[in-house]
């Protein structure tokens, strides 16, 4: 029998060749090469050039890392993106859990509401938040009218306003990212734990959350990178004094026409996001390993 | 050949074929009310006179257009673009814009030479605005006459300022410097000190002119610096506002027509620039867009004469900044603005 089986195996037609396996990767790779890798390479090159100097120079990098103003912009970008990543993930998790587990007839409606913000443009939504949060906006006017406050609260043109606006913009991505992860967790595990006496909170804490760590990390990484590269929301809700790398790059390209310095900022932003992605994936791998040992 | 391949070939030809004809001229400028005015005053008469079609491209601000010219090494896909004198100088220096001469653009000879010199050889000055003081007529008891009126106590929390990303901010700082004993370039400290005090008096900063004007239209602020052309459009719209040229004087916003060095229809582009600078075109433009002209020989309505830059005397009353010096100072001033002026705002 075993001889026959081996013979049968040999007669089986060969699988796809190595070339055939990689063929579907060719079009996206080509697009990435042409429209991402080459422009990125050009941008890196630009960061070492100066219009008034021949050859390569580190002048723009020296300027960036010796200027307190640009370093503050970088720090502000990290803090803003970190806060948005935390807020998005915390707010998205219960919604994603409901969508993954519920059989309610409201599920479809909740799902539609969860992704509804994406139907309106980011600028439109951000101006909506400005109308709500500004000094003479809906919240401040309502609180003053109710006698709760005498002076408007600083809700816009600062970090708070930007974090609120970005959280709203990015929340659907966090929900979708966590939903995929939660759908991969077998609901029978939760039922078994509850049959054995575990409370609901204990099931969430000891079973669901640990098993969805990849989704949590992915949601945070997605929210962080989207926030760090966002321009419209920080520009509109942050006001003139709220400079992050994205708004500073815009100014350098279009107003100061200093493309070398803008390229330095863009490279710093890219490296910053790569470092965060690296930390995130390492953290996820460590937690995964800990869970399975 | 299979029908699907024929369809694909047709689609590909349609996608990659140039959508413009050889005699089409692509003019890039602004959208909004500007577009209709330029169509009526300039584009339609030009099309009729030359028997060509003008394709109007309203995408992008002048700084975005300049970035596009720079990124494409002078081949941005449009033949004529409306920018400012600063960008004309920069583009000329970078070799990205066509140089004009009275041979190629005869009407250049009729422009005020000092204003033309500010814009350099690659910019044809087709429009002048001055920085005016715009105010609410229903909120301010007496019409302001001086830039110093912005510092008055009754305007505390009722002034909005441009952010430094709007060139109006640098011009206002220069003006304040002159008013407070400094000058336009080398001794700018008094300007920054004044702007820091003014920022403390203001509700903050906005970059886009459309957003800035919304503050005064809805009554959140009662006074602000603003270009006189847009200020006049606000007055004409019926908003309870008016504007003045303050007694200390003002600085001009010099708008220019430019032709990218790699423009496809260069000959027609030069004809368009010359047509825009003709006496009758300039008269239509001054009356239509409510701006001034660098031609002192135009004949316009009394209202335009009273309020716009239309004569040699008007031109002489303006401070003309050295835009190359401004460009070299801009980055340092921008950083100083963010450190000193922005934190002082309420």
TrEMBL record, chain A:
Q: Which GO terms describe its cellular component?
A: plasma membrane
State the superkingdom: Bacteria
Question: Is-annotated flag, keyword Cell membrane?
Answer: yes
Q: How does it sit in the membrane?
A: Multi-pass membrane protein
Tell me which UniProt keywords the record has, alphabetically. Answer: Cell membrane, Membrane, Transmembrane, Transmembrane helix, Transport
What region holds the ABC transmembrane type-1 domain?
A: 74-280
Cross-referenced InterPro entries, in alphabetical order?
MetI-like (IPR000515), MetI-like_sf (IPR035906)
List the CDD domains.
TM_PBP2 (cd06261)
Cited SUPFAM superfamilies: MetI-like
GO biological process per UniProt: transmembrane transport
**Membrane-spanning regions, if any?**
21-49, 69-96, 108-132, 162-183, 203-224, 231-250, 256-280
Query: Is this entry keyworded Ribosomal protein?
Result: no
| Localisation per UniProt entry | Cell membrane
The family this protein is said to belong to:
Belongs to the binding-protein-dependent transport system permease family. CysTW subfamily.
Q: What is this protein called?
A: Putative spermidine/putrescine transport system permease protein
State the organism of origin.
Pelagibacterium luteolum
Q: In the record, what lineage is assigned to the organism producing the protein? A: Bacteria, Pseudomonadati, Pseudomonadota, Alphaproteobacteria, Hyphomicrobiales
TrEMBL record, chain B:
Q: Where does the signal sequence lie?
A: 1-22
Known InterPro entries for this protein? SBP (IPR006059), Sperm_putr-bd (IPR001188)
GO CC entries: outer membrane-bounded periplasmic space
Write out the entry's keywords from A to Z.
Answer: Periplasm, Signal
Q: Can you provide one Gene Ontology molecular function annotated for this UniProt record?
A: thiamine pyrophosphate binding
Q: What Gene Ontology biological process does one annotation of this record name?
A: polyamine transport
Under Pfam families, the record lists: SBP_bac_8
UniProt protein name: Putative spermidine/putrescine transport system substrate-binding protein
């Amino acid at each position: 029998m075993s001889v026959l089986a081996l013979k049968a195996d040999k007669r089986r037609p060969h699988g796809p060749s190595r070339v055939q396996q990689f063929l579907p990767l060719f079009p996206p790779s080509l697009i990435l090469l042409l429209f991402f890798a080459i422009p990125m390479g050009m941008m890196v090159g630009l960061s070492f050039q100066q219009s008034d100097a021949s050859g390569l120079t580190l002048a723009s990098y020296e300027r960036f890392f010796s200027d307190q103003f640009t370093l503050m912009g970088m720090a502000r970008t990290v803090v803003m993106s970190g806060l948005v990543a935390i807020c998005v993930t915390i707010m998205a998790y219960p919604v994603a859990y409901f969508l993954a587990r519920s059989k309610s007839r409201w599920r479809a409606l909740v799902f539609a509401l969860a992704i509804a913000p994406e139907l309106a443009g980011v600028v439109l939504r951000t101006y909506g938040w400005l109308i709500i949060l500004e000094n003479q906006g809906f919240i401040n006017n309502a609180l003053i009218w109710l006698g709760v406050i005498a002076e408007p609260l600083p809700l816009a043109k600062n970090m708070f306003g930007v974090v609120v606006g970005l959280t709203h913009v990015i929340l659907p991505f966090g929900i979708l990212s966590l939903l995929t992860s939660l759908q991969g967790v077998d609901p029978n595990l939760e039922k078994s734990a509850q049959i054995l006496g575990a409370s609901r909170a204990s099931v969430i804490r000891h079973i669901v959350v640990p098993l969805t760590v990849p989704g949590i990390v992915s949601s945070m990484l997605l929210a962080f990178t989207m926030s760090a590269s966002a321009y419209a929301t920080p520009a509109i809700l942050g006001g003139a004094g709220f400079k992050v790398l994205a708004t500073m790059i815009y100014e350098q390209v279009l107003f100061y026409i200093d493309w070398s310095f803008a390229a330095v900022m863009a490279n710093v932003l890219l490296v910053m996001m790569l470092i965060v992605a690296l930390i995130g994936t390492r953290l996820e791998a460590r937690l995964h390993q800990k869970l399975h040992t | 050949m299979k029908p699907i391949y024929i369809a694909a070939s047709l689609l590909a030809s349609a996608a990659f074929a140039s959508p413009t004809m050889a005699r089409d001229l692509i003019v890039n400028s602004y959208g909004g009310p500007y577009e209709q005015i330029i169509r009526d005053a300039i584009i339609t008469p030009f099309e009729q006179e030359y028997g060509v079609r003008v394709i109007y491209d309203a995408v992008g601000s002048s700084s975005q257009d300049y970035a596009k010219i720079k990124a494409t090494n002078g081949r941005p896909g449009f033949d004529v673009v409306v920018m400012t004198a600063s960008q004309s100088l920069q583009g000329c220096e970078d070799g990205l814009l066509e140089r004009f001469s009275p041979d190629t653009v005869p009407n250049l000879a009729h422009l005020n030479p000092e204003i033309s010199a500010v814009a350099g050889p690659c910019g044809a000055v087709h429009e002048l605005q001055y920085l005016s003081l715009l105010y609410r007529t229903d909120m301010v008891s007496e019409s302001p006459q001086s830039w110093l009126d912005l510092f008055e106590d009754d305007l505390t929390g009722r002034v909005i300022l441009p952010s430094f990303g709007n060139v109006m901010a640098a011009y206002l700082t220069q003006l304040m410097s002159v008013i407070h004993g400094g000058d336009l370039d080398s001794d700018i400290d008094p300007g920054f000190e004044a702007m820091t005090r003014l920022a403390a008096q203001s509700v903050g900063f906005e970059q886009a002119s459309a957003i800035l004007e919304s503050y005064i239209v809805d009554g959140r602020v009662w006074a602000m610096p603003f270009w006189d052309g847009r200020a006049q459009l606000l007055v004409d719209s019926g908003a309870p506002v008016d504007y003045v040229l303050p007694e200390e004087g003002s600085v001009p916003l010099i708008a220019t027509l430019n032709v990218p060095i790699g423009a496809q229809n260069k000959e027609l582009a030069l004809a368009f620039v010359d047509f825009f600078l003709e006496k009758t075109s300039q008269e239509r433009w001054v009356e239509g867009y409510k701006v001034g002209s660098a031609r002192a020989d135009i004949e316009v309505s009394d209202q335009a004469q009273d309020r716009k830059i239309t004569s040699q005397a008007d031109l002489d009353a303006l401070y003309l900044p050295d835009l190359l010096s401004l460009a070299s100072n801009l980055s340092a001033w921008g950083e100083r603005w963010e450190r000193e002026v922005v934190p002082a705002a309420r």
